[in-house]
Design goal:
Blueprint: E1 13-17, H1 19-31, H2 33-36, E2 50-53, E3 57-61, H3 67-77, H4 98-109
Parallel strand pairs: 1-3
Antiparallel strand pairs: 2-3
Length: about 120
């Protein structure tokens, strides 16, 4: 966002991680002026899986093996049918069993506009 602001217009970055990790990430964003100042309309919902919400960035605490829960969270946060979605998994699926990792990749490929 800071390096390429023009191409990031109308983009929402969604960070999904285990609850304990996303809580740490939320605390880092909240306490780092360079990060929090990049975001507009920031809220920190008091309960649920959505820990940080802004116009440009969402933080979601969710086990990636719980695909119906993840879909529900995403569906209530963004208009999935009107989005192009690019999923990246840095190392998340490395720590999942093969069946769960395959299910996640299959699920992501079935998202409308998924890439």
């Amino acid at each position: 966002m800071s390096r390429y602001p023009k191409i990031c217009e109308n983009v929402t970055f969604i960070d999904v991680d285990y609850m304990a990790l996303i809580q740490k990430k939320r605390d880092v964003v909240r306490s780092t002026a360079e990060l929090i100042d990049m975001l507009t309309n920031v809220t920190f919902p008091a309960s649920g899986n959505l820990l940080l919400q802004s116009d440009q960035y969402l933080q979601v605490g969710c086990d990636l093996r719980e695909l119906s829960e993840l879909l529900g969270i995403l569906d209530s946060s963004v208009d999935i049918d009107e989005c192009l979605i690019l999923c990246t998994a840095e190392v998340s699926i490395t720590y999942m069993n093969v069946e769960a990792a395959d299910a996640l990749v299959r699920w992501a490929s079935d998202l409308p506009g998924g890439m």
